[in-house]
Amino acid sequence: MPVPSRQSNTARIVIAKTALDGHWRGPQLVAHALGEAGYEVELIGMRQADEIIATASERQADLIGLHIGGHVAVAEQVIEAIRAALPEVPIFVGGVVPPWAKKRLEAMGVEVYPPGSQMRDIINAAARLTGFDPVG
């Protein structure tokens, strides 16, 4: 499948859910806000690690966002798989993340945005992690 052509001056973000739960509002809001900020965003839904990796590779993602739905062990496995396959692609995580899990995930080198995080902080993190300035 051909890779979609890049618009000039954009960064691509792939957002996926790693847990089968009914919580879709957060990933949809984040995807929408990042799209409005000027990013090319693909919300791929509930996917396993190999599917996330394949999509991120195919789309030449500059950032991967994971909604973990409180399933920390699953998220850790997915993060490890992504790191092994795509070590250059930064990862950020959102969803229900207990404080103890936030520390563990951050120790893995991912940025963590639990419920209540400000959208501006997420957009700023995307800018910092991708090197794309949505404002300028």
Secondary-structure topology with pairs:
Elements: E1 12-17, H1 25-36, E2 40-46, H2 49-58, E3 63-67, H3 72-85, E4 91-94, H4 99-107, E5 111-113, H5 119-130
Parallel strand pairs: 1-2, 1-3, 3-4, 4-5
Quick structural gist:
This protein is α/β, with parallel strands linked by helices. The protein contains 5 helices and 5 strands; from the N terminus they run βαβαβαβαβα. The protein has one domain: Cobalamin-binding domain (Rossmann fold, 3-Layer(aba) Sandwich), CATH 3.40.50.280.
Identify low-pLDDT runs: none
In the CATH hierarchy, the architecture is: 3-Layer(aba) Sandwich
Arithmetic mean of pLDDT: 89
User: What is the number of domains?
Assistant: 1
The CATH topology name reads Rossmann fold
Number of strands: 5
Termini Cα gap: 32 Å
CATH-wise, what's the superfamily?
A: Cobalamin-binding domain
Let me know the largest β-sheet.
5 strands, parallel
Strand content: 15-25%
Radius of gyration: 14 Å
Topology pattern, helix = H, strand = E = EHEHEHEHEH
Multimeric state of these chains?
A: single chain
Portion of residues within helices: 40-55%
Global geometry: globular
Helix tally?
5
